[in-house]
Fold each of these.
Amino acid sequence: MDLRSSLQLLGGLSVAQFMRRHWQRRPLLVRQAWPGVRAPVTRQQLFALAADDGVESRLVSRTGGAWAVRPGPLPRRALPPLGRGAWTLLVQGVDLHVEAAHQLLRAFRFVPDARLDDLMISFASDGGGVGAHVDAYDVFLLQLDGQRRWRVGRAKNARFVEGAPLKLLRRFEPTHEWLLEPGDMLYLPPQWGHDGVAVGPCMTASIGFRAPSTDEVARALLHGVAESIDDGDASPRYADPRGAGTTSPGRVPPALQDFARAAWRRAARSPRSLERALGEWLSEPKAHVWFEPAGVAAAAGAGTLVLDRRTRMLYDAHHIYINGESFVAAGRDAQCLRRLADARQLGGAEVRRLSRAARDTVQQWLSSGWIHER
Ligand code: SIN
Ligand code: CO
């Protein structure tokens, strides 16, 4: 992809211009970003997904001023009749379950996969929406079907309605209002208040990008680094300093605290262990994801390898990450496997150039159903 060529998806801006001017800064409304867009699921398919307990969904409805939220799974009978207004069904991770939804995300791969959260699709009856709120996410709101009126305004120091089942903005001062038609798209940075109300029944796709907080990353890294420590006998053991006994036996010895500080530094000393923990965490599949093992698959190398749509594959200077696991790769193996991560497929000729060890690893991915051979 040429980052400097003008894209209809971004209203004629190039990726470079969009990233500079709008990404994480200000909204962008694009009329006919995706002319003739086809919803990757029908309404019936979306309802069927919501009924599945392996899919994350919720129903939001409003009666007068009162909001109600019901988490999925939602059998069809749990959904209000289509003719009743002011309700919306939201289905997360549609890209994990429906190939056409996964394919739709390809248009947004100018943002690193490590930032991608998922594709959510909502169906709303007339007047339906989730109220004025902010998200911690960058989001592209692509109108798939019908019309939705968006009101948008920066929400500084957002405060929320107490006791509501949704995080609704207590004060919302929209500065823009747009009626979106099928194919129109609205980009919103995090912390912009927004309220989308269906005008007649409508379907909207949200392509969301997560921005982890320092707390989340720290928790993930600490966990990852802890997992990578093996209980080797070689690690130095604490020794009491020379001296007398204690008259305050309850107190933690300061020397033991110093030892702990040194152990902490030692655990996080290797920058590779930190990178590895990060890559493993970022490539971890979502909670609802499982793969269908292929069992004893055909030997790798016969055809093109294609990543399963649920597979998250990333890399850094030293590692390849796939579905929460890391592999050290260098030279030609690294080149080929990085291409697999970027293009999500790898031609048979390239697969044959992999080392024996890399091919064995690929074979395991095939057997686990993480990749497929075409
Ligand atoms: C929706 O599709 O109804 C909600 C999307 C959002 O506001 O984030
Ligand atoms: Co939102």
Note: The first helix runs from residue 15 to 21.
Amino acid sequence: MPVPPPESSVGVALPATRYAARAIHARRVYGEGDTAVVALADLSLDLPAGEFTAIMGPSGSGKSTLLHCLAGLDVLTSGSVRIGDTDLADLSDRERTLLRRDRLGFVFQSFNLLPTLTAVENITLPADLASRTPDRPWLDSVIDKLALRPRLRHRPSELSGGQQQRVAVARALVNRPEVLFADEPTGALDTRSGAELLTFLRAVVDDLGQTVVMVTHDPGAAAYADRVVFLVDGTIVEEVNEPTRERVLEVMGRLET
Ligand code: ADP
Ligand code: MG
């Protein structure tokens, strides 16, 4: 039986787990009638602040839909998504756009850097577009944590894939987001650059206190996370804490057959 929280009259309260984001009975249906596709089916997920969560599952299981709905890039058919205490359903399109800009970060498989801008210009672009002066000490710690200082004046074409993706991560972190979402961030990298990027993402969680949610196909990548959740048919069917590559492979083998 769950232990009830201590009575407030006692004057002590356990610190509540702070969730950076939550999906509550999330449902996303594309299309209507006979051709409707249920991409998310009554999915609930808590993402504690300061943790690194990996999302896995077969192709078409709803991973990208989940990430897009959590990040306010797509909207649920029913159920809710909260970022901190904000329910995304309470927001207008405009407010959701601002929330994405000010409170979330997103990294894609393709780095999506602007080719004519230097690394540092790409990194500060979100702050520049919001007419905000980036928080200098934070920007410095992000640049150093991602080992980008020697590359700041380089343009994307002068950087390796791994370096370009680190610039994309730094850009996503510049506003000190409440959650950093990454959809297959190592998908376009070779094994060594991929492993390097994951080590950097791990450091962003451990040393900068960031919350990271990453979709991946790769059991080796998932092993960098604190927790792996497995989706099948738009719902969570399994969770692994402190994953190893072997344990993730074992669950994948069981789920995909
Ligand atoms: P995954 O990322 O795990 O491969 P997706 O979230 O992309 O899965 O897709 C889940 C399901 O929803 C799939 O059946 C997919 O075809 C469908 N789907 C995703 N986006 C759309 C869309 N915009 N319109 C129609 N169907 C979609
Ligand atoms: Mg996908």
Note: The first helix runs from residue 63 to 70.
